[in-house]
Write a structure and sequence with these properties.
By secondary structure, the chain is α/β, with parallel strands linked by helices. 35% of the residues lie in helices and 12% in strands. It has 14 helices and 13 strands. β2 (96-100), α4 (110-113) and β3 form a beta-alpha-beta unit.
Length: 425
């Protein structure tokens, strides 16, 4: 998919006559080939799929081959894939799972449905990811798994985490929802975990509007996840282990199927992932390099062993030398028409559900919420500091090869952070 193939939309352009900057259409966008295929599906009434048709099979095969995994399972969302993954790992009520504090809440909240307890790990580096030593300090006799997020697309230390998990007999789950196209030591993320999960929804670089993907090499993990997410005919077409034969018709109580429409849309992005990553990173590099040359703005370093792929979000650091606080700078730039702000994803320890506020759930889930509140009643200083310093850049408008907003953004930022200084308060 090239930007030349993307049909113009009426929504492109100014939405407010006072805006100084014309933004392109916000991601996701789809080329004409994908749109034509979707129309063909709809014309034949194929907005759903119980039979494991070609569209879903092709998407799963592409993910499996790219990551070198034996099994891929497409789901209705990344959250559904996470729940299926935790279930398939055999987590029981009271089991603890060490989870990144700095992640989207759905990395952890499905654990409550199983009665498992998320134990939050503070950020261990300037990129917001966990460090191996920090994870190791939280392992107890109740720990069953480690779940890490490659925050904003920067991979965690997968070598160290895999070694730790193996030494302690723990499962390792990779949440790759921010990390389409990211690599660790020249391999795609999603290859190191016992199970890995991607989101294929919203404004992810690979997006079907809604969708998720689960990857594993373990036959039993795949079978249990597939049975939770599906029932006949998908299950009897793809599960061969005899132990699961009695459940192929009924499944195990869930229905997390992806639609063929979403599969087609996501596959169109996945097929063009290399080009999409290259374009977005070129635009981001130009924007971040220009911003980091200004007073009080710093780039977040990328580890030499890693690439950040499509960078679901990219932030810069507003440091103490800046004439504005992060929030003041965001407000000033927003006044000038720039789509910047504090990160939408905030540390999990800030949310009531991780502080013991349980809704009218089952006693098992309520007990897990209470246990999580006790386990996480401690400070998270690194995540707090980073969240207060970061300024989120408009990555969703940086998919076009022309990079139309890079120069206007830099011009405005130079005006705001130039000799005029901070506004009066």
């Amino acid at each position: 998919m090239t930007t030349a193939q993307i049909a113009p939309r009426e929504t492109i352009g100014r939405t407010d006559p006072r805006e100084r900057i014309v933004h392109p259409q916000e991601w996701p966008v789809y080329d004409d080939f994908a749109l034509a295929e979707v129309l063909e599906l709809l014309a034949h009434g194929r907005s759903f799929d119980y039979d494991y048709g070609d569209e879903i099979a092709a998407l799963e095969a592409a993910f499996a081959v790219y990551h070198g995994r034996r099994h891929a399972l497409a789901t209705a969302s990344g959250t559904a894939a996470l729940l299926a993954a935790y279930y398939a790992l055999g987590l029981a009520p009271g089991d603890e799972v060490i989870v990144s504090d700095f992640t989207f809440f759905s990395t952890a909240t499905p654990l409550f449905l199983l009665g498992a307890v998320p134990v939050l790990c503070d950020a261990g580096d300037e990129r917001g990811n966990v460090a191996v030593d920090g994870v190791a300090e939280l392992v107890t006799e109740r720990t069953a798994a480690i779940a890490v997020t490659h925050l904003w697309g920067h991979p965690c230390d997968l070598g160290g985490l895999r070694k730790l998990a193996d030494a302690r007999g723990l499962a390792l789950l990779e949440d790759c929802s921010h990390a389409h196209g990211s690599t660790y030591r020249s391999r795609p993320v999603g290859c190191a975990g016992d199970v890995a999960v991607y989101s294929l929804g919203g404004r992810k670089m690979v997006s079907g509007g809604m969708g998720g993907m689960l990857l594993t090499d373990d036959e039993d993990v795949y079978a249990r996840a597939c049975l939770l997410a599906n029932f006949r005919h998908r299950t009897d077409l793809t599960i061969s282990a005899p132990d699961y034969e009695p459940f192929l018709i009924t499944g195990l109580g869930g229905n997390f199927r992806i639609s063929p429409v979403a599969a087609v849309l996501a596959k169109s992005h996945f097929d063009a992932l290399g080009e999409l990553v290259e374009t977005r990173l070129a635009n981001l590099s130009a924007l971040v390099d220009g911003l980091s040359a200004l007073e009080g703005i710093e780039a977040i370093p990328v580890d030499d062993a890693c690439t950040t792929g499509a960078s679901y979000d990219t932030n810069v650091v507003v440091d103490p030398s800046c004439p504005f606080t992060r929030d003041e700078l965001a407000a000033r730039l927003q006044d000038e028409g720039l789509k910047v702000r504090a990160p939408a994803t905030k540390p999990l320890h800030r949310f009531p559900i991780f502080q013991g506020a349980a809704p009218a759930w089952s006693p098992t889930s309520a007990a897990a919420v209470a246990a999580a509140a006790t386990a996480n009643a401690r400070p998270f200083p690194v995540a707090e500091r980073l969240f207060g310093q970061w300024l989120k850049l408009p990555v969703n408008f940086l998919w076009d090869a022309s990079g139309t907003i890079v120069e206007p953004y830099l011009n405005v930022c130079e005006e705001v952070l130039g000799p005029t200084g901070p506004r009066e308060r």
